[in-house]
Design brief:
single chain, alpha/beta, GMP Synthetase, Chain A, domain 3, Rossmann fold, nine-stranded mixed beta sheet, three-stranded mixed beta sheet, 11 helices, 15 strands, 32% helix, elongated, binds adenosine-5'-diphosphate
Length: 376
């Protein structure tokens, strides 16, 4: 079978006309960087955000054109409002920066009541561990819950849930792939599609297109809550995501150290800037109970996140100790809330889930009406 190349993809895309029918989408400068991972092809079409609806047939046509190529298995094409410097873009004046919508203006996912982000200012603080256990704790309250791994640079959901299989077309809606299921959760991660061992270089628009596809082209079914495990950090990619995902709220995970707290503060401010309510702060690796001597050690200066939450005027959702057992279970696809539901950790996550759900249910997320903010 012949190997798929960027040139072949571009050639196929030249047959797809931009709206208006005069030029093709390649000549119109609409096609982003093309990422090829094995037999999977991913790219975005850069469009005027105000006319996104009108471009949907173009997106579909582009997807079909590339799907028809020999050697191609899956094609992910998304519309993005991100603009390449100097690239011609239909409907958009040169020099005018595209203005991504704030979260409240982003289109929702039909059937999904609430989307919440679990974020951290930096990696390694236990964001993914918190996201999965919080999702499971919400499910244990009798809610229908999904988890979306938006950390496309380092997807951890396949490992956390011990899932390896690829998503398959949904029998009821073959246009879409069905979300995978584990421990009663619906789940989707780029790690299910792209081989974890294959390095993929994601560029700005690709991040958004992958995320948009995972939200809108996957059958999630009816969900009370979708938990989004955000990529770590507070850079442009995270900000764009916070703007383009219709979030009901965000949870910030931090360790108690000063340094991590500074990052957590940045994360918190990022969500505040785009008018996403902060549901609370979680202190992870809060203290350590020595399994040998049963003594509590506050290695990182326990309590820092609680003080920070008070200082910032946001809820404190609880503290999770540093526990080798929790790590062992997380890293072997047996999250503690599902496999040790009676443990003190599971109880702490459940309390967190109850507090979060109480806020979501009543709509009391502290969200205030604010003017639209455009980040230059
Ligand atoms: P992040 O998403 O912030 O990068 P992870 O959730 O992937 O962080 O956690 C990083 C590592 O720390 C993983 O090996 C995980 O199992 C471990 N870990 C997370 N929280 C705890 C905890 N409370 N106790 C012990 N290990 C933890």
């Amino acid at each position: 079978m012949s190997e798929i190349t960027k040139e072949k993809v571009l050639e196929a895309l030249k047959a797809v006309k931009a709206p208006g029918g005069d030029v093709d989408i390649v000549s119109a400068g609409m096609v982003s960087e093309i990422v090829i991972a094995g037999k999977n092809v991913m790219f975005a079409l850069q469009v005027d955000p105000d006319q996104a609806q009108a471009y949907e047939p173009v997106r579909k046509a582009a997807e079909e054109a590339v799907s028809a190529l020999e050697g191609v298995d899956k094609v992910m094409v998304a519309l993005t409002a991100e603009k390449k410097e100097g690239a011609g873009q239909p409907g958009q004046q040169r020099g005018r920066k595209p203005q991504p919508p704030t979260a409240s203006q982003a289109p929702g996912i039909p059937g999904v009541d609430h989307i919440i982000a679990v974020a951290s200012g930096k990696g390694g603080v236990g964001k993914s561990t918190t996201a999965i256990n919080l999702a499971l704790a919400l499910a244990s309250l009798g809610l229908k819950v999904g988890i979306l791994d938006a950390d496309i640079y380092g997807p951890s959901l396949p490992k956390l849930l011990g899932l390896k299989q690829e998503p398959q077309p949904d029998p009821e809606n073959p246009e879409k792939l069905a979300a995978l299921e584990a421990y009663g959760l619906k789940a989707m991660s780029i790690g299910f599609v792209v081989d974890e061992a294959t390095p993929v270089i994601w560029r700005g628009p690709m991040v958004m297109s992958a995320l948009q596809q995972m939200m809108h082209e996957i059958s999630w079914g009816d969900l009370d809550v979708m938990v989004v495990d955000m990529p770590p950090g507070t850079g442009d990619a995270q900000l764009t995501m916070a703007q383009q995902v219709p979030l009901s709220g965000a949870i910030i995970v931090s360790t108690p150290q000063d340094l991590a707290l500074i990052d957590a503060r940045k994360g918190l401010n990022m969500f505040k800037r785009v008018n996403v309510p902060i549901l609370g702060i979680v202190e992870n690796m809060s203290y350590f109970i020595c399994p040998n001597c049963d003594t509590r050690h506050e290695i990182f200066g326990h309590g820092g996140a609680r003080q920070e939450a008070e200082r910032m005027g946001v809820p404190f959702l609880g503290e999770i100790p540093l526990d080798p057992e929790l790590r062992e279970r997380s890293d072997t696809g047996r999250p503690i809330v599902a496999t040790e539901p009676e443990s003190p950790h599971a109880k702490a996550y459940r309390e967190m889930a109850e507090a979060v759900w109480a806020k979501l249910k009543t709509g009391d997320t502290g969200k205030k009406s604010m003017p639209r903010i455009v980040v230059e």
